[in-house]
Amino acid sequence: MKYVTNGEGETEDLGAWLAGRLSPGAVIAFTGDLGAGKTAFTRGLARGLGITDRVTSPTFTIVNEYEGGRMPLFHFDMYRLGSSDELFDIGWEDYLARGGVCAVEWSENVSDALEKDAIQVEICRGESDSQRIIQIGGAFQ
Question: Strand ranges (DSSP E) for the chain?
Answer without folding.
Answer: 2-6, 27-31, 63-66, 73-77, 101-105, 119-125, 131-138
